[in-house]
Amino acid sequence: MKDTKNKIILDPNYINIKRFGFSIDTLLQRYPDGAPNKIVASALMMTEEEVEEFYEGVVEKLRSIMGVKNE
């Protein structure tokens, strides 16, 4: 399991879903407009809650960088 987590971190194309050939490129062909959180969570070995928290953190960081205030 630790080796798989390392692959996810170190290989920009690796995901943990066999049916997509462990390839994010293949997953993106299937979901060109974005995959559901359930798929993202499985691909990255995270919970759906962790995916949502990570997403919110990224959005908050971008808002901060761009100087956009929350309403």
Keywords:
71 residues; mainly alpha; 61% helix; elongated
Give an overview in words.
With 71 residues, this protein is mainly α. The protein has one domain (2-66). The protein has helices at 2-10, 24-30, 37-44, 48-66. Helix 3 packs across helix 4. The N and C termini lie far apart (41 Å).
Short description:
It contains four helices and no strands. It is mainly alpha-helical and 71 residues long.
Tell me, what's the shape? Answer: elongated
Our estimate of the beta-strand percent is: under 5%
Model regions low in confidence, pLDDT < 50 over at least 5 residues: none
Rg is 14 Å
Distance between the termini: 41 Å
Number of helical runs? 4
Total of domains: 1
Strand and helix layout:
Layout: H1 2-10, H2 24-30, H3 37-44, H4 48-66
Helix pairs in contact: 3-4
